[in-house]
Specification:
This protein has 405 residues and is mostly helical. The chain is built from 19 helices and no strands. It has a single domain, classed as MFS general substrate transporter like domains (Growth Hormone, Chain: A, Up-down Bundle).
Length: 405
Amino acid sequence: MRKKNNEQNLVKTQENNGAWIAIVAIILVSVSLRPGIISIGPISTLIQDDFNFSYSTLSMLITIPDLLMGLLALPTPWIARRYGRDTVILYALLLLTLSTLVRAFSPNTFTLLSTTVGVGAGIAIVGTLMGGFIKLKFPNKAALLMGIYTFSLSLGTALAAGTTGIIASYADSGWRLASGIWALPGVLAIIAWIVITLQGRKDSPVSQEVSERSVPIPYKNPTAWMIALYFGCTNLLFYAIIAWVSSMYQEQGYSVSVAGFILLTFTVVFMLANPVFGALSKSLDRRGWLAVSSLLAVVGLILIAIWPDASPFIFISIFAFGLGGAFTLSMTLPLDNTNTVEESNVWNGFVLTVGYLIAATGPFSVGFMRDLSGDFSTSIWFLVGITVLMLILTPFLKPNDRSLQ
């Protein structure tokens, strides 16, 4: 009996250790997934001067990753079934890290844009598969772990937004060092995922890899479309603000440093909202908290649109807290509507495809409107309309009855 209890305790200890290793890996990987995009915002004017870009062309450095995050989301679950989830994530992290590093040495527009393609592809593949990994490792704590995941995504965002401009201002190479330094989180993520890969080889084939059973894409499921549209709206707003909020406040007369701190405030508050809403939303029916977060986003952005030069830190904080909560909950919705890892991967792939294709229009639309009108006022009211659409969508985000279509 004592030997049996010792064996049970050993198994439990190993499971706990495995859970903590998985959590650390989730954090390190997710921190590495946003700096390759976010670092462009604070140094956009330096890149613009170096390559003589228009606002519309400059926006492509954020639009391209968004497009790839959408286009690669659907085929990624098939690739994971074919080659193994852990292996695919590892190679995608290598692609992201190398592309981030090489981009810093870009001698021309072609190299700059092609390495940005690599950044977007790496992020797309890893981001699609992380939801299924969380579903597998923590099936009963999906919302909490998704909150940790999105918090860590936002932590990487905040670090890149808050320090890239400072690095560029002090470095002799300007934007190049400030951009390339964000390959370092990728190195840590690669090390963490090598540990996960080695750990997975000790597990049974069922637990380490996704099921071979093919799951249909839920394109006939109305709930899947509503989730994808809501997710698209949150990310359109996020990337549009990341790309242009610093420039917008500089046009209002704020200095480069103050405008940078406004961007940093947005990313930090967004980050803090992620685990808060993940912890508060305990029911599978998350529509109440979705409505609260959407309403906060509406109010904050309307205040910015009406009084763009008044209390920017307060207004951007209201908007960021609402948007951060909406982002966490929208990432959890596909998991709420699925029962297996493979189903989660396919739903995530569908939602990310539709969502990021929508999101990719955000930075470009704002930049294009800025080129046409000469200021950002029209663009901000366009973004207000997107927040209102989010609020309208919330009643339609009730989970399915678990009989997946």
